[in-house]
Structure formats: structure tokens, C-alpha cells
Sequence to fold (211 residues):
Amino acid sequence: MTCSKLIAGLCTAFALTAAAIDLAGAAVYVFEAAGQAPRFASHPVDASFRLLIRDESPAGHALTANDNATPNHALQRRRATLDPFIQRTAAKQLVDPALVRAVIEIESQFQNHVVSRRGAVGAMQLMPDTARRYRVADRRDARQNIEGGVAYLKDLLTRFDGNVALVLAAYNAGEHAVDRQGRVIPRYRETMLYVPQVLDAYLRYRTAEAR
Fold:
């Protein structure tokens, strides 16, 4: 995916900011006008944007493992362990590895064995139905987990015409939820916070790779 296509896809759903989004203090602002699709941002772009939701929890994407406070060097070590699987699988599925890294960072902080309160497991936090759909026998196996998660991302990219924001919303809330909302980001608190977090990480990884 080219940068121009990436940015075009993101801007259909979000007014992006250059500032990094704090996982513990993420917020979503919205601008709404009659006859226009709502525009979302992680900060008030101007006075017309109002606060929609703010994450007041001590950790943005809640996991059963309390790892959001883990020093960055530990996260980097875990990422280095998973990177061979990410690179190989992303190349095979023709999915941007930066997008895969961004999803894994926000979903699990590059942890293989983490389990969410809802029962999502592994680096890409696969639910049982998604694991069965993509023939993942062991969700705690890094290779299988990443292969299943990337295959799901690829299908979502096709389904939503490369609109990364909608792909991420579907990854979090389910593709049927996005369809039911008229192919816009569902106004679920978790999803509205999740999407800008992953977009920020995605752009950060894309920028790092371009250097």
C-alpha cells in the first residue's frame, strides 16, 4: 500500500494529528455538520470539534497482564522476537508489516501469551471464532497467531477497500458492526479509542521505515 493511498484511507474517517496519542489518556473529538460525514480527531482541531469520549482508565487497551508500564526496552525485545514472523507473514499476505506491528503493539504489547478479559489470546488477540475461521489451532503459538491475524487483516482490507481506519474498527468491533453502522466507525467507546491509537502507531512505524 502506498503512503498516498494510506493517508487517503485514514482521512476519510479521521482528522489525524502529528502528536503521539498517550495510551493512558486517549481521547476522540468529533465535528458534525448537517449533511456531512462526521470527522474525528485525537485533539480539538478547532472550536467546532467537541469531546466525544476520553479514556480515563490507567491503561488504554486493557489486558489481563499489567504490561502497559513495562519499560520500552522490554517491548522492543519482544518485538524483535516476533519480527521474523511478522515480516514473513506480511510479505506472504501482501499486508504492510507496519500495520501488523501497529495492531500487535496496541493489542498485546508484542506478548504471545496475554489473554484479554473477553478471551482474546496472543499477539494479535484472536477470539475463538476468528481462530477457527483462519485455522489457528493454538492461539498462543506466535507463528499461528500472527498468520491468522494477518490473514484477517488482509480480508478486512479487501472488504473495506483499503480504508485502514475502517479495517481497524472492524478488527476491534467486528466487520458486521461496521457494516451495520453504514460502513463508518461504530460509536463504541473501546473502538473509538482503539482506532486512533493503532493509526498513530501505524504512522509511527511507517515513518521509521521510511528513514
Remarks:
- Helices lie at 3-11, 72-93, 97-108, 128-133, 142-159, 164-173, 175-180, 189-210.
- The chain has eight helices and four strands.
